[in-house]
């Protein structure tokens, strides 16, 4: 008889805005890759996330976030760099995203997308879900 292993606690959760069409399409798409390296995904709108983070809705929804198991957080463009550093084939992109001038460009591109993600979703034909 084989004894099953207990479910492992993830190292952290990538938290995304499920009302955004692009976010709700792409973050779940990357979930298998994230799970292979020990991370899971969750919606920023999840009750347990809002209770655990204890952050106002406005600032909570501003950026993609990474909630680590120890309670620390990474947000915005740094979440992308965090994972690029940990996925072997993305590591060259991590190096580029950390180079001084390219870091500023990467941060600007992230901020532009994040601030306009619902517009990008509409332009791409990905429906934005209304907030509850």
In short:
The protein has 132 residues and is of the alpha+beta class. It is 52% helix and 13% strand. The protein has a single domain (12-123), classed as Glutaredoxin (3-Layer(aba) Sandwich), CATH 3.40.30.
Domain unit count? 1
**What is the CATH level 1 assignment?**
Alpha Beta
Q: Uncertain segments of ≥5 residues (pLDDT<50)?
A: none
Got a strand count? 4
Helices and strands in order, then pairings?
Blueprint: E1 12-16, H1 21-36, E2 39-43, H2 47-53, H3 57-60, E3 65-68, E4 73-75, H4 77-86, H5 91-98, H6 100-115, H7 117-123
Parallel strand pairs: 1-2
Antiparallel strand pairs: 1-3, 3-4
Helix pairs in contact: 4-5
């Amino acid at each position: 008889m084989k004894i099953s292993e207990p479910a492992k606690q993830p190292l952290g959760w990538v938290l995304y805005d499920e009302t955004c069409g692009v976010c709700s399409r792409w973050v779940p798409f990357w979930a298998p890759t994230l799970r292979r390296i020990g991370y899971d995904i969750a919606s920023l709108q999840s009750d347990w996330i809002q209770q655990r983070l204890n952050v106002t809705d406005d600032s909570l929804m501003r950026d993609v976030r990474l909630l680590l198991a120890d309670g620390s957080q990474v947000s915005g463009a740094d979440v992308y760099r965090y994972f690029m550093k940990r996925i072997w084939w993305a590591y060259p992109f991590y190096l580029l995203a950390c180079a001084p001038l390219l870091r500023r460009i990467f941060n600007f591109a992230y901020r532009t997308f994040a601030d306009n993600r619902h517009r990008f979703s509409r332009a791409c034909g990905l429906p934005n879900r209304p907030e509850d």
